[in-house]
Amino acid sequence: MVSMPSPNLTTEVDAEITAARPGVALESTIISHGQPRPRNHEAALEFEQILRERDVVPATIAVLDGVPHIGLDADGVRRIAEEDLAKASVRDLPVLAALGRSGATTVAATARLAALAGIRVFATGGLGGVHRGASSTFDESADLPTLAENAVTVVSAGVKSVLDIAATLERLETLSIPVIGYGTREFPAFWLRESGYQLDWAVDGATDIAAIMRARDELGARQGIVVANPIPLEQQWDPAEHDRVLAEAFAAADVAGVRGKAVTPFLLGYIVDASSGRSLEVNLDLARNNVRVAAEIAHAWSAPRA
Ligand code: PSU
Ligand code: MN
Questions:
Q1: Residue positions annotated with a catalytic role
Q2: Cβ(210)–Cβ(305) under 8 Å?
Q3: N or C: which end of the chain has fewer CB within 10 A?
Q4: How far is CA 302 from CA 19, 174, 207, 305, in A?
Q5: Would you say residue 2 lies in a domain?
Q6: pTM, whole model, 2 decimals?
């Protein structure tokens, strides 16, 4: 067990760490910034419930009043859903801690805190990546370099098609982060099962992912692993509607003259509105699906070796 610089482990997670119970980290940015209220509160509770039903300890991660919480109580979950929390990446963690401020953690900050607490499996919706136009804006999510240095297995449905998927896959290769398709060789594009990009590796189940995690540790590698888990076909967004809404969203951003870090929130807000909430339903379905797969991996990871 790695001790936290400023520990505030809820009893449940504390027990999981000491008793080696299977645990899964959950991020708070998708609750705080990714979904409208009050739906986001229901979603946060539902993700935790999916884990508990599978005998896995949920560790929703956030920084509250300067303290990194690895696992939230009911009031903590309410706070990430209801308060206007800052979106916190890794670089914000020392600032929040020193100033006693609160923040909803991104994939990067969640992975960092999970790694510090010894939690090795993490479920999210979509990973951050390289933004379109990054060759001039340098806009690449800190999710990527953070996963290069923290040995956490992240289950995601790939990256959103608003990002530059090809460039994101190239960066994952450069950073030596394995990307493993879960039952598929095709890298998923969040709302859609297929992105048009093929992966080198695919596995059929959680046992193989746990074996890759063990081999990674034995090799002394420090990188995390990206498990690319596509949304089931019957739940994906209609590809024609997806393409139409995205084209509209990019055109609207252009007309509005949106630039820099404001582009993604603009696009995502536009997409939810222009799809009459359909994109949000797909978002919730794929996140639930990722939480279920993460639970399987957590069990396989903590199972005694054959
Ligand atoms: N992708 C999504 N929904 C999200 C995010 C990514 O489909 O809410 C969030 C995650 O918290 C991710 C973060 O870590 O956005 C990446 O943001 P940035 O590009 O600013 O690093
Ligand atoms: Mn950015």
A1: 27, 160
A2: no
A3: C
A4: 11, 30, 11, 9
A5: no
A6: 0.95
Ligand 2 centroid from CA 264, angstroms: 9
On the question of a cis peptide bond just before residue 304, with omega within 30 degrees of 0, the verdict is: no
71 CB under 6 A from ligand 1?
Answer: no
pLDDT digits (tens, 9 = 90+) for 275-303: 999 999 999 999 999 999 999 999 999 98
Number of structural domains (the chain) is 1
Question: 16-30, 59-73, 106-120: lowest mean pLDDT where?
Answer: 16-30
What's the CA gap between 126 and 107, in Å, rounded? 9
Q: Rounded to an integer, what distance in angstroms lies between the CA atom of residue 144 and that of residue 223?
A: 10
In a domain, 219, yes or no: yes
Could you list the residue range(s) of the whole structural domain that residue 79 is in? 8-302
pLDDT band at 1 (very low <50, low <70, confident <90, very high): very low
Task: Taking each helix axis as running N to C, give the angle between helix 39-53 and helix 74-82, from 0 to 180 degrees, rounded to the nearest 10.
Answer: 140
The ligand placed nearest to the CA atom of residue 128 is 1
Which residues are within 8 A (CB) of 74 and not within 5 positions of it... i.e. 6 or more apart?
none
In one-letter notation, the amino acid at residue 72 is L
Ligand nearest to the backbone CA of 139: 2
Q: Whose C-alpha lies nearest to ligand 1, atom 10? A: 106
Residue 3 lies in a domain: no
What atom of ligand 1 comes closest to residue 142's alpha carbon?
21
Q: Is residue 1 part of a domain?
A: no
The residue type of 179 is V
Residue 207 phi/psi, 5-degree rounding, is -60, -40
Give the pLDDT score at 19.
Answer: 57
CB-based neighbours (< 5 A) of ligand 2, an ion: 139
| Cα(233) to centroid(ligand 1), Å | 23
- Return the CATH number at 49: 3.40.1790.10
Q: Is the dihedral of CA 134, 244, 29, 165 positive or negative?
A: negative
